[in-house]
Amino acid sequence: MIYKNSSVLITGASQGIGRSIAITFAAVSNRPIILLARNKKKLQETKRLCNKAGADQVLILSCDATDSEQLNSLSIPGDVPAPGILVNNAGSYLYKTVSETSRAEFQNQIDVNLFTAVNTVNRFLGDLRKFDRALIINICSVGALQGLAESGAYSAAKHALLGYTRSLRAELKDTDIGVTAINLGQTHSPSWDESTMSPKKLINPSDVASLIVQMTELSERSLVEEITIQPQHGRVEPM
Q1: Is 137 helix (H, G, I), strand (E, B) or coil?
Q2: How confident is the model at residue 200, as a pLDDT?
Q3: pLDDT at position 238
Q4: How far apart, in Å, are the Cα atoms of 30 and each of 10, 22, 54, 131, 167?
Q5: Are 21 and 87 within 8 A, CB to CB?
Q6: Quick one: DSSP state of residue 221?
Q7: What is the pTM of this model?
Q8: What is the pLDDT of residue 145?
Q9: Could you report the per-residue pLDDT of 175-197, keeping only the tens digit for each?
Q10: Beta strands 7-11 and 33-37: pairing type?
Q11: Which CATH number fits domain 3-229: 3.40.640.10, 3.40.50.1820, 1.10.10.60, 3.40.50.720?
Q12: Which residues neighbour 77 within 8 Å (Cβ) at sequence distance 6 or greater?
């Protein structure tokens, strides 16, 4: 199958960064777009915005990607091209120290920040192998590069996601599937809605989306293996 004719599948596409990624693909490319998240109502709003931005074909998949059985039961209609690009964006941020984090909260951070990506890759890897070129882009975090005293479970989960991404890259290096890790700093999203941080000091999610689109347009000879994006003036403290 031909990479340039494939669709792009975006997890966590119901809001925030995932929605920005979807809208940017809709505005600047002709790829069919597959939106995956739990909240069907918010996915429908993302679809509307993608259509408004110029997308001709947008498919909604309402699913809890932490549940591998639920994800594996999904089917893509025959008129929608299989995904040649996976953008594993789904995630959850817990602002809590490790010593205060319950076992259930820690497990949830692992499930949402790691296993949504693992399950999605496992579900669609067979399709990716059929293309002359394919990409897996995992949204990791700068919290994967260092410990975070105020959000230790999140940092631990993102460490795991980065380790998984690097290992997957090594495993697939001799195939036609590229694997990229984006270590993302503080980016404006609903995660920060209840904080006192100034949105104007955070990374613009549209910039992240534009960068991802550019990555998907590289030739098969080139791959961005890992990249870190930070706010221009560094870490943003509460105001």
Answers
A1: strand
A2: 76
A3: 60
A4: 15, 12, 8, 17, 31
A5: yes
A6: T
A7: 0.94
A8: 97
A9: 999 999 999 998 867 665 556 66
A10: parallel
A11: 3.40.50.720
A12: 59
Tokens 């319950």 label which residue?
102
Residue 216 · residue 135 · CB < 8 Å: yes
Residues of the chain short of pLDDT 70, as ranges, are 188, 190-198, 238-239
Q: How many CA atoms lie within 13 A of 172 on its CB side?
A: 22
**Distance in angstroms (rounded) separating the CA atoms of residues 51 and 14:** 14
Cβ(109)–Cβ(160) below 8 Å = no
Domain regions of the chain by residue span: 3-229
Handedness of CA 213, 137, 1, 43 (dihedral sign): negative
pLDDT (0 to 100) of residue 239:
40
Please enumerate in sequence order all residues whose Cβ is within 8 A of that of 102, keeping only pairs 6 or more positions apart, or say none: none
Sign of CA dihedral 52, 56, 60, 61: negative
